[in-house]
Every structure is written in structure tokens, then in C-alpha cells.
Design goal:
This protein is α+β, with helices and mostly antiparallel strands. It is built from 13 helices and 31 strands. The strands form 11 sheets. Strands 9-8-14-15-29-28-25 form a 7-stranded mixed beta sheet, with helices on both faces. Strand 3 and strand 4 form a beta hairpin. Helix 2 crosses helix 3 and helix 7 packs across helix 8. It starts with a helix and ends with a helix.
């Protein structure tokens, strides 16, 4: 065989080998993730979910399809790669279709209305055409998951007008796995679990928890619940009383009434009743009567079934005592498998008083839960913790910001756990420490801790003027000081507070009406924190509307209106991870954390080393090609 024939045969074999390798590779999904945190790989829990928990076939309709500029094609490519990875583990249970909403020019507008009605919003990506012009490209960055008669919409990128830059592409990519798995769980779960916020003891209100409440609502049903209610006869009496007062006003034909020194007119200039005035005044009169009834504890009753519809109960910053019957109902809720999130402040600092005063003293909060929770394995101490790792504060006296406010600890990940791994620091406000307590049969895991530079205070004078006494760095602290626990996860078979406990005859009659349980039948879990403000969003007045609006938990309110106003805290991610853990949805925990990892290159480093990396990218490939050519030439010459 001639040398020329051998070369041709060799070339054909190499080409056939390459084609064969590509064909085999196309039959299976192979990907090597070299990042330290495996950010580009599906989490093991996602893989397990895709392989084992999808029973029936699911159709996935993707609407990010069509011919787009290169910038948008990056989004398409990232989505296609991730979907191929999902399908590699789910197999034929996922039927994926790519649908171009603009494919039929005559029907596209009606089709887009249908997509919008299903819950997917369009986005308009701004593409720079030249130095002076930008073009908005409409895309539909969403998918519909369908199984039987059930449909779930998944929005992959927020609607509205967006610039296309690397940060947007990264955010889109980081959220793909979380949003897809979350959508699948919603689609395949029949019963949505309910998270209830307890009311009736001065807890955080709906304005305080606006942000975290809406984030919980993305996956759970959220409501409020009262165990202790005013008896129906008194509530009905307040309605009747309000009606009587209103009728008296109409009969006397008074043109106005005086309420709290303010004149409220009943009729307009034409002598007609002002629209809505009747309902407004009736509500006011009813509220006055209800407050009178509430002064007498005997006018209340506790419902044994109040928590029956709640899968999780959040008790956030109660400031008023619980009745013994209320505590019993919560105790039995726990014995029957209910999950409780204890967010208990032991110290109250009325910071708003610093507007007109040089200092304010911390005050103890007594909710009668301090000793109650020790039976389950934890105790919230009546101390006030300051930490050298802390947040700034916007002074309420209008004199700017303090860069370091030691009463606002910012807790970083000293001992990573599944709740705070890859999560931004957690900010607390006027928090107390938490100790493990009692039986060793309960597993106690610290999930939030201070730094090693902290101070414990009891009753303390809080002032903006002198921070020396609150600054840990001003004290000679031990070098190997252990961090304090600020949050504790308790797991195990809890024992009732009322087991072998002496009770009076009145309470015994109440207890006999219930199906009393002395302990949990199976392992249960709860969390205990010495602070509730870490889920409370700040409120600021909108200058345009004059109304309060919330600052999301990720942001620092002291930075509002400055270039530094950006996500810096992981409070909501951390708390949502805890909820998912206790509600049995821990497949979402590692995914939510991934979405918060910034991976943009430093612009300073790019500028500094730009020429170097340009040289490497241009020279090294060219050098390798030349080296390979010279080597082949020398090899042939030797032959």
C-alpha cells in the first residue's frame, strides 16, 4: 500500500472515530463541573426528585423560542442546556416543546393573550444597536408545566423592560433549576401546606412582615390565626351597639359628629349622606365597644381547633402574655406534629424615642413563653447582644447614619449548615441569645451564631452619642471565645408541658374536652430564635404617594437613595430555607442558596489584566497549532 493510500485510510479512520464519538455522546448527557460549589450541576436532591418523584408524564411548553440577536440567544442556550440536563434524569416523563409565539403572524396576538392569561409575562430586552440607539426585543421568558388538568406557569425572567448584560444572564441561569423544580413540586403536590402567623399578643403585623409573607406565599398558603377570641355574644353586641349609635345620629339629624377633637361631616353640601360615611362610623363605634369588652379576660374563649388547619405556626415577637389555655393548645399542636417557629424577643428597645431623647433604656418583654419552651429543649435569655460585625443604622433624629450600630449584629457563616450555606449574612436587631436546655433525647443544632467578638448586656442605656460601652472591640475579650447561639433547631419526640402537671379544676374541665397527648408519636421539629426583627422589613414613606412602603429584607434601609442600595442580607433566604426544611420541601434549599451567589468578574481586574489575557488567548492557540505543524513536518522528514 502506497504512502498516499495509507494517509487517506488514516484520515478516514480518524473522521469515522470522531463521528462515532459524537454519536455516542449524543445518546447520553455528560458534563464536568469544575466549580468548587458545583454551581453548574443539578443538586443531588434535584436529581433524586427527577428520578424518583415524577409519577405521570409532564408536558413542558417553552415560549422563549424564535430568531433573536446573539445576546438573547445566550438565554436560549442556557435554558436548552439546563432542560437537556433535566430530561437526562427524568427521561420520557418530561415532554419538552419549544413554541414560538410569533410563528403565525395572524394568530400571534391572540396566542400571546392566552399565554399572559396563563400567568407568563413578556419581557422587553434592550439591545444597543449603536452609540445612540436601542431596540426593545419582546420575549416570553416562561414555561407552562402541564399534567392532566393542572397547569403551573413558571416565569424564568421578570417581566418589564430589562437591559441585557452579564448580570441578567447570570441571574437567569442561576434561577433555572430552582424555578423549574419549584414548578414541578407545585404541579405534583395536591395539598398546599398552610403557614399561619399567630395574632393576639402584639405580634408583628402584616405591614411588618409584608416582604417575607409574600415570599412564603410563592409556595405555601399563608394566613393569620387567633387562638383566643372575644366570645361571639360580645362581638355581635358590638355590632348592634354601633347600629344603635348610627341610628341615633340619623334621627337627631346632626350634620356632623366630633371624634377625637376632629369634626366628621355626615352630609354633603346638597344635604345627601356622604358616600361610605355610615360604614366608616359604624366600624369606628364597633371598635370602641370591642375595646371595652376586651378589658375583661372573662369575655374571651380559646378554641381547641384554632390550629387544626395550620401546618406551620410562626410566633413572631409577642409582647403580651399568653393564657394557660392558649399555651395548652400550642402544646397539643406540637404533640400532634405541628411545626412552630418561635421568634421571641426578650428585650424591647423603643428606638423611635431617640428622635427627641438622648438615650432610651432597654425594657424586658414577658410573654409567659420563657419557661414554657424549656420543656422542648431551648431557652431564650433576657440579654441584649452586641457584635463588632454589625449593620449601620439610619438615625431617627434625622442626623444621618451611624456606620456601625452594634445592636444590629450581622451574622456571617462561621459554621456552615444547610440553611446558611452560600447565603448572605443575616442581620438581627436588638437580639437575645438562645441556650439549649433539658433532655439529651432532643437533638439541638445551632443554626445561627454570633462572631467571637460580642458583648452580653442586661438592662442597658441605648444612645447614638457614645457607643463605647456597646463596642466589643473596646474590651479585652478572650481570643478563643466561643460564639453565642442566636438560633436553635430542635428535633425529636417532644414531651408535653402538661404531662404529670398539677392543674386546677377549671383547667381540668378544659383539658378533658381535648384528646390530650403526653408526647409526640413521631419525631417533630421546631426552631427557636432570640429575635423576630430579622423577618421584619423596614418601612419608609414614599415621597410621591405619602404612604409607607416596605424595604425588602435583602436591602439596607440606611443605604436607600445611595449607589450602595443593593441586596446585602440573606434574611429571607435563610428563613425560607428553614420553612422548607420543617415543611418537608428541603429539595429547594440548596437551589435557593445558589441564586444569591454573585459570579461577575471584577471590572478593576478586567481593566488591569485585559492586555495580558488578550495575549494569552491569541498567542497560546496559535503557538500550539504551529508546534503541532512543525512536529508533523519533522516526523515525516525522519521517515
Amino acid at each position: 500500500m502506497s504512502s498516499k493510500t495509507k494517509d487517506i485510510a488514516y484520515f478516514i479512520v480518524v473522521i469515522a472515530f470522531i463521528i462515532g464519538i459524537n454519536y455516542v455522546s449524543s445518546l447520553s448527557f455528560i458534563r464536568q463541573d469544575l466549580t468548587s460549589d458545583k454551581i453548574h450541576s443539578l443538586s443531588p436532591k434535584s436529581i433524586h426528585f427527577l428520578e424518583n418523584q415524577l409519577v405521570d408524564d409532564i408536558s413542558v411548553d417553552i415560549y422563549l423560542d424564535g430568531d433573536f440577536p446573539a445576546e438573547i440567544q445566550k438565554l436560549q442556550n442556557r435554558l436548552t442546556e439546563k432542560l437537556n440536563e433535566f430530561k437526562a434524569y427524568a427521561g420520557n416523563k418530561l415532554r419538552i416543546r419549544y413554541i414560538n409565539p410569533n410563528e403565525d403572524p395572524e394568530l400571534k396576538e391572540d396566542f400571546k393573550k392566552e399565554i399572559y392569561a396563563e400567568g407568563i409575562d413578556p419581557a422587553y430586552i434592550m439591545i444597543t444597536k449603536d452609540a445612540t440607539q436601542q431596540e426593545g426585543i419582546e420575549i416570553w421568558p416562561g414555561m407552562l408545566l402541564k399534567q392532566g388538568d393542572k397547569t403551573v406557569a413558571v416565569q424564568l425572567l421578570q417581566g418589564g423592560t430589562l437591559p441585557i448584560r452579564q448580570e441578567i444572564i447570570n441571574r437567569f441561569t442561576d434561577q433555572l433549576e430552582f424555578k423549574f423544580i419549584q414548578g414541578l413540586i407545585k404541579l405534583t403536590t395536591d395539598n398546599v401546606k398552610t403557614i399561619s402567623f399567630l395574632r393576639g399578643h402584639g405580634e408583628l403585623n402584616n405591614a411588618d412582615i409584608y416582604d417575607i409573607r409574600h415570599k412564603i406565599m410563592e409556595f405555601y398558603s399563608v394566613d393569620t390565626v387567633r387562638i383566643r377570641q372575644l366570645r361571639n355574644e360580645y362581638f355581635n353586641s358590638s355590632i348592634d351597639s354601633a347600629e344603635v349609635q348610627w341610628n341615633q345620629i340619623i334621627k337627631t339629624n346632626f350634620p356632623y359628629v366630633v371624634i377625637d377633637s376632629d369634626t366628621v361631616y355626615i352630609y354633603d353640601d346638597n344635604g345627601n349622606l356622604i358616600e361610605g360615611i355610615d360604614n366608616n362610623l359604624k366600624r369606628y363605634f364597633q371598635a370602641i365597644q370591642l375595646n371595652r369588652f376586651k378589658q375583661n379576660p372573662l369575655n374571651f374563649s380559646e378554641s381547641l381547633t384554632a390550629l387544626n388547619k395550620s401546618d406551620g405556626l410562626i410566633i413572631a415577637k409577642p409582647k403580651q402574655p399568653f393564657s394557660e389555655k392558649e399555651k395548652f393548645i400550642i402544646d397539643q399542636y406540637i404533640m400532634n406534629g405541628g411545626k412552630v417557629f418561635w421568634l421571641l424577643d426578650r428585650v424591647d428597645v423603643k428606638e423611635y424615642l431617640l428622635k427627641d431623647s438622648a438615650y432610651v433604656y432597654s425594657e424586658p418583654i414577658a410573654s409567659d413563653l420563657e419557661d414554657f419552651i424549656t420543656t422542648y429543649g431551648a431557652r431564650v435569655n433576657s440579654d441584649l447582644i452586641t457584635d463588632y460585625q454589625c449593620a449601620p443604622v439610619k438615625r431617627v433624629d434625622g442626623r444621618g447614619n451611624l456606620i456601625k450600630w452594634y445592636f444590629y449584629p450581622v451574622l456571617k457563616t462561621l459554621n456552615p449548615n444547610e440553611f446558611n450555606l452560600n447565603v448572605a449574612p443575616i442581620r438581627l436587631k436588638y437580639a437575645s441569645s438562645v441556650d439549649s436546655f433539658g433532655t439529651a433525647k432532643i437533638k439541638k443544632t445551632p443554626i445561627l451564631q454570633t462572631s467571637t467578638k460580642f458583648l452580653k448586656k442586661r438592662q442597658f442605656r441605648v444612645t447614638y452619642k457614645d457607643l463605647t460601652a456597646s463596642n466589643p472591640e473596646m474590651f479585652d475579650l478572650p481570643e478563643n471565645k466561643s460564639p453565642l447561639t442566636m438560633g436553635l433547631l430542635l428535633e425529636g419526640n417532644f414531651t408535653s408541658n402538661y404531662k404529670n402537671r398539677g392543674i386546677n379544676k377549671t383547667f381540668k374541665r378544659f383539658l378533658d374536652q381535648s384528646n390530650f397527648k403526653e408526647s409526640c408519636d413521631t419525631a417533630n421539629a421546631m426552631v427557636v430564635f432570640g429575635d423576630a426583627d430579622f423577618i421584619r422589613n423596614d418601612l419608609v414613606i414614599n415621597k410621591e404617594t405619602g404612604q409607607y412602603q416596605p424595604i425588602f429584607l435583602e436591602f439596607e434601609a440606611a443605604d436607600l437613595g445611595t449607589p450602595e442600595f443593593a441586596p446585602v442580607y440573606g434574611n429571607s433566604v435563610f428563613f425560607l430555607n428553614i420553612i422548607d426544611k420543617l415543611m418537608g420541601n428541603d429539595v429547594l434549599i440548596p437551589l435557593r442558596s445558589r441564586m444569591k451567589i454573585p459570579r461577575l468578574l471584577s471590572s478593576d481586574q478586567i481593566t488591569l489584566h485585559k492586555k495580558y489575557w488578550q495575549f494569552i488567548n491569541l498567542f497560546i492557540p496559535s503557538f500550539l497549532i504551529v508546534l503541532l505543524g512543525v512536529s508533523i513536518w519533522l516526523l515525516k522528514r525522519k521517515k
